[in-house]
Each structure stands twice: as C-alpha cells, then as structure tokens.
Design a protein that fits this description.
Length: 157
C-alpha cells in the first residue's frame, strides 16, 4: 500500500517538529494508541488497537526515526504484530515546510500487511489507512492548540 498527502497545521515549524517528537503528544493523537514509550533517542515501542473491516486486533510494535534533518524531515520505519490478525510494516517520509505561522506537513507512506489483514483486500485496507491518517491529523491539530513545548533547559551558573 502506498499513500501520500499533505496537511496544513496552524503552528510554526519548530513547534510542529517538537510535537512530532513528543511521545505524549503522539500517544494522544494516534487513533487507538494505548501505549507509546521512548526506547532510545530515536526509538519507540507502541501498542495500538485497530479495526480494519472485520479484523480487530491489538498491535505491538517498534518504531524508529531515521534520516533526521531537524526541523525539516525524517523517515519513520516500523513494524507491528497483531497475533492472528497478522502484521503490518512500513515506513513514512515526513517533511515540514514552513509558511509563516503555519506549517505544511507532507508525507509519503509505504506499508505491507500480512495474515488475516492481507486477506480482506487492499481497497478496505487503503480506506482504513486514509481514515486513520485523517483522524490522526485532526486530533494532532486539536492537541497542538493546547500544546506547550518544553523549553530548553537554562544553563546553570
């Protein structure tokens, strides 16, 4: 499955970048996300409950941020296992384009599924993925209105 799109976000690039790297912000924005914990500087473990057509499962997986070019872009690579429902793996290229006080987030996703998920058909999977992306951006934008990024620590005297 391949998917791409763009989303205008009403916040400056630096704020959007920080929010996209904040596990709490992401946990609150990802549809069905039950847990999201940082496992290293650029790694996360996640548990997400998802329903695609007749298949419902809890996916446990790992996500890594690669090719980081702060505050402009990175590549997200991950995989998750949902028991008998199957698995999902893939990557997404994310790029932030500043435009004054707003930012355009551009994304390109490539994903593979297996198991029962692969049996339900690509049209249903594509539809569910687009719906989840839309829900993520709506929730992310709503959460961003109340988001206050941590400021860098002041140096001690």
């Amino acid at each position: 499955m391949d998917m791409n799109g763009e989303q205008k976000i009403n916040a400056p690039q630096a704020v959007v970048w920080q929010a996209l790297n904040d596990p709490d912000m992401l946990r609150d924005s990802i549809p069905g996300c039950q847990e999201l914990e940082r496992t290293g500087e650029n790694g996360f473990e996640a548990t997400v409950k998802a329903k695609v057509g007749p298949v419902s499962a809890k996916f446990a997986g790992v996500v890594e941020l690669l090719d980081i070019n702060e505050p402009e872009s990175y590549r997200i690579s991950g995989e998750g296992k949902g028991g008998v429902a199957g698995f999902a793996s893939g990557s997404a290229n994310v790029r932030l384009v500043p435009n004054g006080e707003t930012t355009t987030l551009l994304y390109t996703v490539n994903a593979k599924v297996g198991g029962k998920l692969a049996q339900i058909g690509s049209r249903l999977i594509d539809s569910a993925a687009k719906k989840m992306a839309s829900q993520f951006f709506t929730k992310f934008s709503d959460n961003l209105e109340a988001y206050s990024p941590e400021s860098p620590a002041e140096p001690a005297d």
